[in-house]
Each structure stands twice: as structure tokens, then as C-alpha cells.
Amino acid sequence: MGTLEVAGVLDEAVGDCGGGRMVVVEDCVETGGAFVVHYLLKRSLSASDAAVVFVAFAQPLAHYDRILRRMGCNLDAYRDRKRFQFFDVFSAADGLLDDIVLQLYGKIHGTVESFAGERPVVVIIDDISVMEIDANEALVLDFLKSCCSLSPQFGCSLVALIHGDVYSSMDQPSLLLQLEYMADVVVKVEPLATGLAADVHGQLTVSKKRNRAHDMQFRIKDSGVELFYPGTKGC
Question: How many domains are contained in the chain?
């Protein structure tokens, strides 16, 4: 089997947008997994009738707008149709004090609640590691657990990006372990185990609870991402 459509693999991983699932995208500084977040954002808006609540700690809106336009998705159009809500924490200058995090969760809860019974909702957080720079681990974990509580309450899904290698030197990386435990799906993006290759940019593993992992390799192109099974590049 040769090249795969990125849509088929990640659609299978996430499932129905209204399924109340939690997806954790775990990457590293050397091999970023932002392309997975970008794809899931586009997929949630373009391939379903879902609304997206996007919580941005890593980049401003212009960054995502530029990338999604290149992928054929106009965020402004979805925002005008009340299907895309963007919370820009990246540009906030006050840091993440307890009350600010509580206010942020209140806004997320209110937005998700406003869609209840109308359309499925996907909450996307980019990214947890940046959030933890300004807030302590306990506060971040409480915030994530509160966001997870929206799934059984309103049936929404949650997608969160975290840099796994930030915790590699810790004996017990509790935040990362807690996220992996809570997740229904873990999409892990890593460098190639065999080292650098000219036409392969990394490897991607999709793990689902009670199911075997799917191991793939990927190559990032201007038009998107190409996925393929190890050893099948060029087939």
C-alpha cells in the first residue's frame, strides 16, 4: 500500500465531531505536529456542520488564517456564519493568573452551551505547553479537566496539542501522563527512528484506547501533508 490521504487516517482517529472524544496531539520541538491541528480545524469546519472553539496560546489569528487559506479554508467566512470562535490568549499581556483562566473557561463553557442541541462542537487548544509557561501545572490540569467535563455535558470533542519532549527529562511527567490517560486518541508526531531522510519528514502514530496503534510516516508539502506506511514511499 502506498501513499494515503491524510483525511482518511485522521478522520478515522477523531471519528464523529459530535462524539465527545478527546484527541491529544503530542509532538516535539524537532518535529512539530501543528499540521495535525490545522487539518483537524479544517476538517471540523469543512467536512461537517460542527462549530469550532479555538483557544490559541501559541499564535495569533493571522497565523491560522494564513495557513488555513493555503489549505482552501476561509476562517473569516466561518466566523461570519457563527461557526468559528477564536479566543486569542497569545496576545494577552497579563499572564495566566487563576482568575484569567477561570474567565477563559467561563467563555468557553458559554460558547459551547450556546450551541447545545444546535450543532456539534470541537474545542481546540494550541498549545498546552505554552499555557504551562505562564500557569502552574495544577492550574493547567484543572483547566483541562474542566474542558473535558464539557464532553459528557454537551457532547463536544476536545483537541489539545502538547510538546512531549518538554517533559522528557522528568521522572514522572504528570501533566503529559494525565493527558494521555484522559485521551481517547493520541496522535504522536516524532522524528524518524532511523534518522533524517530527504523525502520523509517524520513519523506519526495514532493510538486509540483498546485498539492497536497505526504507524505511518509523513512528508509536509505546500498543499498539505502526505502520509504513507513505512517502506512504501514512492509505491
Answer: 1
pLDDT in tens, the chain (235 residues): 344 455 566 666 555 555 688 999 999 888 889 988 998 999 889 867 889 999 999 899 999 999 999 989 999 999 999 999 999 988 875 666 677 888 899 999 999 999 988 888 999 999 898 888 878 888 899 999 999 999 888 989 999 999 987 766 666 667 888 898 899 889 998 887 776 666 777 888 888 876 656 677 677 766 666 766 666 664 4
Q: Three-state DSSP class for 7?
A: helix
> For the chain, what is the radius of gyration of the CA atoms?
17
b/e 78-103 (16+ beta carbons within 10 angstroms → b): bbeeebbbbbebeeeeeebeeeebee
Q: Is residue 231 part of a domain?
A: no
Within a domain: 3: no
Coil vs helix vs strand at 199:
coil
CATH code of the domain covering residue 96 = 3.40.50.300
- Find the domain containing 68 and state its range: 17-181
